[in-house]
């Protein structure tokens, strides 16, 4: 997993991570997401050139990176020094295709702009960006055909994903291990995404990655440990 510095802002060293000219037009327009997340997106995936805001869950943010990086897409995370690399790997992110710029400092807008020129997905938090700077970065993503994933509120966002109603499973009668977390994710945006949609899923599931929600009648009895859990057949 490469670690990049703020010198990216002026080095001109960022190349195109995936050749947009030579890939099929369908792939140019869309990056895939996990099947259990596809229903949140009007086109079933991350549209190139779009800005997507994620609120309430770092796990959800990482889950959006998993399927693209498991293919041949590259991602960069800027200005999020506490991001857990191990957690990213457990959620399926290919960390050898994940670049980190932990401390861009005052160069945050320039570093994000440079990475949008060469990466398929760029993740950043709002930080101290002004509305004008945020809008310029969204315009840069739109022009370069990258996906901009942002944490928290962002002006003019195309789609906002909000994670709520988290319930952990695995502890019963005061003992046991945390095994999985059931969450409800709501998506709402502009145009085709104006009508809110919701999905309920396990994030993380019992194996660490994203998984479908388990019906109540298949949940383990209280007091069971995760190794004793009876799960729905695949």
> In this structure, how is the largest beta sheet organized?
9 strands, mixed
Q: Can you tell me the residue ranges where pLDDT is under 50 for at least 5 consecutive residues?
A: 9-27, 173-179, 216-234
Order of helices and strands: HHEEEHEHEHEHEEEEE
Find the count of extended strands (DSSP E, 2+ residues). 11
What would CATH call the class of the largest domain?
Alpha Beta
> For this entry, what is the oligomeric state of its chains?
single chain
Over the alpha carbons, how many angstroms does the gyration radius reach?
18 Å
Beta fraction: 25-35%
Mean of pLDDT: 79
Q: Supply the number of structural domains.
A: 2
**Shape category:** globular
Molecular structure report:
The protein has 234 residues and is of the alpha/beta class. It folds into two domains: 25-159, 3-Layer(aba) Sandwich (Rossmann fold), CATH 3.40.50.300; 163-228, no CATH class. Helix content is 22%, strand content 27%. The chain is built from six helices and eleven strands. It has helices at 8-11, 25-29, 58-70, 85-90, 108-116, 131-144; strands spanning 30-31, 46-47, 51-55, 75-78, 98-101, 121-125, 147-151, 159-172, 175-189, 197-202, 211-212. A nine-stranded mixed sheet has the order 5-4-6-7-3-8-9-10-11, with helices on both faces. It is globular. The two termini are 32 Å apart. The model is unreliable at 9-27, 173-179 and 216-234 (pLDDT under 50).
């Amino acid at each position: 997993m490469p670690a990049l510095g703020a010198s990216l802002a002026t080095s001109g060293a960022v190349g195109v991570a995936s050749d947009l000219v030579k890939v099929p037009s369908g792939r140019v327009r869309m990056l895939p997401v996990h099947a259990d997340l596809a229903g949140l997106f009007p086109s079933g995936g991350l549209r190139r050139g779009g800005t997507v805001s994620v609120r309430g869950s770092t796990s959800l943010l990482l889950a959006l990176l998993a399927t693209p990086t498991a293919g041949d897409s590259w991602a960069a995370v800027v200005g999020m020094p506490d991001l857990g690399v191990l957690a990213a790997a457990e959620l399926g992110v290919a960390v050898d295709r994940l670049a980190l710029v932990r401390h861009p400092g005052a160069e945050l807008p320039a570093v994000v702009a440079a990475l949008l020129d060469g990466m398929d997905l760029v993740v950043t938090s709002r930080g101290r960006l002004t509305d004008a700077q945020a809008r310029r970065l969204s315009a840069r993503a739109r022009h370069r055909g990258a996906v901009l994933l942002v944490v928290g509120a962002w002006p003019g966002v195309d789609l906002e994903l909000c994670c709520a109603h988290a319930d952990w499973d695995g502890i019963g009668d005061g003992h046991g291990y945390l095994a999985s977390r059931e969450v409800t994710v709501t998506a709402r945006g502009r145009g085709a995404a104006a009508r809110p949609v919701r999905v309920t899923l396990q994030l993380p599931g019992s194996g660490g990655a994203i998984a479908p929600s388990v019906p109540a009648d298949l949940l383990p009895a209280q007091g069971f440990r995760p190794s004793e859990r009876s799960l729905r057949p695949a």
